[in-house]
From TrEMBL:
GO terms for cellular component: cytoplasmic vesicle; plasma membrane. Residues 4-79 form the Sorting nexin protein WASP-binding domain. One of its GO terms (molecular function) is phosphatidylinositol binding. Pfam families: BAR_3_WASP_bdg. It comes from Trichinella nativa. This is Sorting nexin protein WASP-binding domain-containing protein. GO terms for biological process: endocytosis; endosomal transport; plasma membrane tubulation.
Length: 79
């Protein structure tokens, strides 16, 4: 969320500098727009991060559950 807010603020600031017709403000406007795009990309990475970590964790839990199910059988063999 915060990255989206920062991105929106930098986009608005870059747009404000684009409205100025001065040639010196153009590089600043481009830099602000680029910064806004970077913050937007960072925000998207933060959003997709839990999706990448949950699936392998759930696979490990499934394997662990299978191992625990075999414990009573292993104990019966040793009795």
């Amino acid at each position: 969320r915060e990255c989206a807010k920062y991105s929106g603020a930098f986009h608005a600031l870059g747009h404000a500098f684009e409205l100025d017709q001065d040639e010196q403000s153009r590089p600043l406007a481009e830099a602000l727009t680029f910064t806004a795009d970077c913050y937007e990309a960072i925000g998207q990475l933060y959003e997709s991060q839990p999706k990448r970590h949950l699936e392998p964790l759930m696979d490990d839990f499934f394997i662990y559950r299978g191992m625990l199910a075999l414990v009573p059988d292993a104990v019966q063999i040793h009795k």
